């Protein structure tokens, strides 16, 4: 399907420029979820068919990031994944994190280790002898800036530091590959367009050897589908050992949405999204960039008045553009921001 017509698969009310906050479900994902909610309401189905969505989601996510499904754990939040990854660190470990990092990928390190924060653009050079890990977002949620992954991975390799990435603002529009990473956590309710409550964690085999399964539970058990009662502790051999028992309905919405993204092709989605972001930037007199998220000093209240929904914080507008965003959405936003006032 052509990306320019893929928007037909959604029911977005025009003016949604806030996927960096949450993404909108494709129609068939929403409908699958409604079917399941109806089953739940009436008690007309066992939960096992709902649970099949977890395996589907895990496989689709693994495919998206070039991982084996056996190296992907399922969870509900990024902070939970990072908190368990933190068990791989030695006491007193030093973790380098960008100053601007979203706190779900900062607080877990502050609890477990010593954190050194640095300007995002100096991340690679801040990795030095004695650095145990570097943790960062592939795309920063506040600014939309992309981390220069190659440099960071090379610096981390040189000092034997773990590389821990948050892909919540990347997966779904930016091609992502787990090559060179130890952990990659992703919340699925933004660019993967799932209901909140589904998250994925790629955990490399070498990292897993050092991790403790702090949230061990029946779903992470060796028996596929559940280790229900009694000792001994018997966890899966692969990344499933770190699974949380799943928020079923979130995964019911996640599976069809992630499968659709794979089908449409993330590289094509990137071109579409960045093209729209750059159309928005050009309208405001800004140079193009390579991101689907634009953060700009602009009178955000005018967007609200025009019915455009973007994130407006402390005098800055954060607008984000996904597969269902249209040129009309962009042009309306530019018009609202520029009409009757000199560009700023
Ligand atoms: C980069 C990033 N990571 C994670 C999250 C969400 O974290 P959690 O899943 O812990 O709620 C967000 C939400 O805005 C985010 O922007």
From TrEMBL:
Which intervals hold domain Aminotransferase class V?
A: 54-284
Q: Which UniProt keywords apply?
A: Aminotransferase, Transferase
Q: Name one GO molecular function term.
A: transaminase activity
Pfam families from the UniProt entry = Aminotran_5 (PF00266)
InterPro entries cross-referenced by the UniProt entry: Aminotrans_V_dom, PyrdxlP-dep_Trfase, PyrdxlP-dep_Trfase_major, PyrdxlP-dep_Trfase_small
Q: What is this protein called?
A: Aminotransferase class V-fold PLP-dependent enzyme
Question: Which organism is this entry from?
Answer: Nonomuraea purpurea
